[in-house]
C-alpha cells in the first residue's frame, strides 16, 4: 500500500476527530444560506427560526438578527435601525446545549455576570456587547445589550425597520460544561408551543470517543510500520 495514501487517510481521520473536540462555536460567513449548525435563537411570526448574526459596521462588530430565507441582518446602532447585506457572519455551534438564556433586567446584568459567563457577541470600543432576546411584535426576536463599566442600557431590537428598547429580557450565557435539557423560561416555553424545534444533536458518548482514540492510535502504528519497511 502506498505510504503517502495511508498517511493522508490518517491525517484526515485525526482532523475529523479534533473537529469534535475543538470547534464548540464559531462565526461563519453568511451569504443567505443557513449553515446546518446555525444556532436557533428565536422564532418569527411565521414560525421560522431567527438566528444571531454579526456584521462589520465601520470599526465595530454589531450583533443583530437574521431571518430564515434572507441574505441580510437587522441591527440597531446609534438609535437607528439598519439592514445590511454584506460582511455578515452567523453564530454556529455543534453544542447548542452549552448556551442558555436567563431572564434579567438591565440593572441586574452585572450581578448576573458574577455567576454566569455572559456571551459577548460584538465589539465596540469602551463597552461590552451581549446578546439578548424578547417576545416583541409576535416574534421571539434577538438584539444587543450594551454595557458600560458602570451601567447597561436596555436590550435593543429591530422590528419593521424601527428600533425598540426593552428593560426586561433574556440574556445569552455560555457554559462549555452545559448539559442538554429543556429551558423552562417563559420565552422558550412560548417558542416551543409555537414551533416544535428540532432537538439539538447530542454530544458523542464517552465510548465513541474511546473508539476514535484507539482507531487513531492503530492507524498511526500502521503508518510507522509501513515507513520503517521502506
TrEMBL record:
Spans through the membrane: 207-227
Name of the protein in its database record: Uncharacterized protein
Record organism: Ignelater luminosus
Signal peptide: 1-19
UniProt keyword annotations, A-Z: Membrane, Signal, Transmembrane, Transmembrane helix
